[in-house]
Amino acid sequence: MQKNQLVELEITDLSYEAMGVAHLDGLTVFVNNALPGEMVKAKILKVKKNFAFAKIEKILTPSPDRISVKLNQWVQTGLASLAHLTYQKQLAFKRMQVVNLLKKAHLDSIKVNETVASPKEIGYRNKAQVPVRMVSGKLEIGFFRKHSHDLVPLENFFTTDPEIDRVLLAVRDLLREMKVPAYDELHHKGEVRYLEVRRSRATGEIMVILICLHKDFPQLRKLAKAISQISGVVSVVLNHNPQKTNVILGKHDYLLAGKAQIVDKIGDISFSISPKSFFQINSLQTPRLYDLAIKQADLKPSDVVIDAYSGIGTIGLSVAKHVKEVRGIEIIDDAVRDANANAQLNQIHNASYVTGKAEEIMPKWAESGLQTDVIFVDPPRKGLTEEFIKAAVATQPKKVVYISCNPATQVRDLQMFMDLGYDFHEITPVDMFPQTPHVESVTVLERKK
Ligand SMILES: C[S@@+](CC[C@H](N)C(=O)[O-])C[C@H]1O[C@@H](n2cnc3c(N)ncnc32)[C@H](O)[C@@H]1O
């Protein structure tokens, strides 16, 4: 097999990154945008030792599950790389990822429930973070083509709340009008690198964050004022990222206009959200995820609960009224400040949050003799560490509720809990990210009798 060769391929599977999978000449071939069951004519783009990448030249036999997508760029950029697959099949694909991971770990007996569908399949995101670049001499916002930093200009971001798209375009137009230079990655010059917009579904409040190379530039004051006048915008922030890096956000935020936080709600609890604080992006699906986790935790009024990787306290504050005490750990200081302020805002007096790495704080709590009843963990994609798991187990919880956005690391961590005397019987995928291959899943570990 060689680069640029044209081949006919039968697609037999979908990779966890949503690429069609075929086999030819002893190699696995990953084909962008192809679906299982399809015959395609494809061009080989890259050949490695055991695998190759190809792109579709022509679909010879389309899958009955293929749906036509209004803008191909949504699929091509990876913004919505599953948008060409029916929603029912997306849900089945997500469940199968969990099934396959468990099978690989020899945990075939675990029941994998049907994926819980999202109430909204498009326009569900409460936050967008989009690159700003010059394309053919014009300032554009959009999304990078998969595995590249080539900006594909977009005006409709498909998975985000349309109100967020409206604000993104209004800010883009102001940047154009005021001739604010877009960031030039190659020469590490220019001003605006990314735009971030967050919108509260509950209150309609909108925060705009300009992620910039410099913390000041000639048009900044006028620009901030004009952004603050866009309907719905209550907060304008500059995030200063002077580094030559792919990491989007810099360390420091500067309030340019309006309030430092916006307020959103989950159930009947209000949450104040700072620019850097994590807040689940699918506002309608989040309460379903938490309700499921809380129901499975079977909480008692005498329980001492840990909310690890707590963000702004969304899980802990949702359970506080059912239990004796909640203690939270979170690494981002602003989020911890928000979590403690959110406890006050909602008159919750039995929950407190500390700043630190969960894997460092948990062992200290365990050494000091803390006994817990239920531990909720909701870590980032890399999952938990061995130190954290051992310390968590040392506090002898009856249950550990594990919410994860990466089933691969979740299954790895669940095996470690099993080695330390815990068991789980079922796992539920919850679709927080329709049109993308991302899978969220929740399970409850129980201490063996
Ligand atoms: C998936 S989010 C969950 C947040 C929250 N539970 C929620 O549902 O909104 C993961 C959180 O873990 C935090 N985090 C990342 N690494 C951490 C660490 N080593 N120790 C504590 N928190 C960490 C992140 O800042 C983020 O707020």
TrEMBL record:
Pfam families: TRAM (PF01938), tRNA_U5-meth_tr (PF05958). The lineage of its organism: Bacteria, Bacillati, Bacillota, Bacilli, Lactobacillales. It comes from Lactobacillus gigeriorum DSM 23908 = CRBIP 24.85. The active site is at residue 405. This is 23S rRNA (Uracil-5-)-methyltransferase RumA. It comes from the Bacteria. PANTHER family: RNA M5U METHYLTRANSFERASE, TRNA (URACIL(54)-C(5))-METHYLTRANSFERASE. S-adenosyl-L-methionine binds at residues 280, 309, 330, 378. The keyword Nucleotide-binding does not apply. It is an enzyme of class 2 (transferase). One of its GO terms (biological process) is rRNA base methylation. Its EC number is 2.1.1.-. GO terms for molecular function: rRNA (uridine-C5-)-methyltransferase activity. InterPro entries: MeTrfase_TrmA_AS, MeTrfase_TrmA_CS, NA-bd_OB-fold, SAM-dependent_MTases_sf, TRAM_dom, U5_MeTrfase_fam. Residues 1-58 form the TRAM domain. Belongs to the class I-like SAM-binding methyltransferase superfamily. RNA M5U methyltransferase family. Keywords: Methyltransferase, S-adenosyl-L-methionine, Transferase.
